[in-house]
């Protein structure tokens, strides 16, 4: 799945850094309490759901725990909601739609702009919250806040540009118009790897158009969503326009799917859940956007600039510890540059500093939970058992718990599990190839089609290969391509629709044709 990078705030070089972590378990555990205390005093540590502008407990009082993936520490217990709360959130969003959709675009725009300003003003605290519940290094987390907020800024601007059309009529006494209208109540289901940005790139365009939203964040990372919702309330976005429920994912999901009042489902997450949601949306024929899993190839040709290819491959593979849907999942390297590239890549990867995201200099945080570590390790073991060779890492990190060593495995074949499915962890499988045709064939031999990367100095080759790749996003000599101004989305089973850019608005709009007759 997911999800992205920060063209504005990115620290491209910082990922290529030094020294293995030597921090102790005690040091690792320090921080949770003090960060929680700071966040509480700033009013950003909300633990209830938001329904109709009111912070609301689960109706049966149930809670779920949110833990720090780096230490296992409890951060907070949040409301564990289900069907009843979701129904009420939908009703609130439905009631608020009448008012919100009728505000002027300029009015909605200025409230979104206020929200953007508040997100930026609280960049540090939101970044800390992201590191606390998701684990990514603080600098990267603050980068996500800038990136996430940029969608609110961009769509605050776009709110004023939802133009319709006047169509030259085929009859002299008729006038033909196209109006664009908000689709209505939107159900937004989001994952844990970008706890803020995956929300803002859905909610930004939805609210800009005049839609209202029920958000269901991941149960692993609800706190960032709740803090962002608190800031939305402060920014003058009226009660009911933005609601947040979390808890029992299937129950919340089914309530959103079954409701005829919900006119759109937007989802980022696994392909399996995306397919379920798409099927479930059929009953009420909702509009659907899906950002699902990727299996990104990163192709390094013999004629690539080695430094550029190295930097790009490191950035696209190892950001967020490999937990993004646009992370390179397969590094394809042409035979003429294979030895040079893998040796330089290995040098860089064994120097990536692993540890708690709050520790200075750490560029690789924990994975989200132990199940993720087990999955990563099982993919690595499967590849080894089939003849792949570990070049760096290849096992759980000595920090234990949720940590995995940044890993490179060579001599990988495209048939191996690790090249068929998303590893979603800090493991770079390297596949050797001979010709451009072979690279394209290997790259396209997958059901996914989200992002692909190529490294070459050949201008003709860059066009040829970009056009041949069955992917929604292609980075040429660049490993970090996501930005709010460009369309993000996939071909094939990587999803439907686009997020960000002017195309991102269309996902939340209905087109209405108005024919005025007998005008002569
Ligand atoms: P990931 O593997 O990244 O966690 P998931 O698809 O499991 O991806 O989760 C993404 C989001 O989908 C999360 O908010 C999760 O709670 C939600 N989710 C999981 N199962 C369902 C479901 N059956 N219906 C609705 N939402 C679901």
UniProtKB/TrEMBL annotation:
Any one GO biological process: gamma-aminobutyric acid catabolic process
Principal location class: mitochondrion
Annotated GO MF terms: succinate-semialdehyde dehydrogenase (NAD+) activity
Organism domain of life: Eukaryota
Active site feature: 291
EC number: 1.2.1.24
Any one GO cellular component localisation term in the record: mitochondrion
Location in or out of the cell: Mitochondrion
Keyword Mitochondrion on entry: yes
Annotated catalysed reactions: succinate semialdehyde + NAD(+) + H2O = succinate + NADH + 2 H(+)
PROSITE patterns per UniProt: ALDEHYDE_DEHYDR_CYS (PS00070), ALDEHYDE_DEHYDR_GLU (PS00687)
Pathway: Amino-acid degradation; 4-aminobutanoate degradation
Alphabetically ordered keywords of this record: Mitochondrion, NAD, Oxidoreductase
Aldehyde dehydrogenase domain location: 55-514
Enzyme category, top tier: oxidoreductase
Subunit structure: Homotetramer.
Name by which UniProt lists this protein: Succinate-semialdehyde dehydrogenase
Organism in which the protein naturally occurs: Tagetes erecta (African marigold)
Lineage: Eukaryota, Viridiplantae, Streptophyta, Embryophyta, Tracheophyta
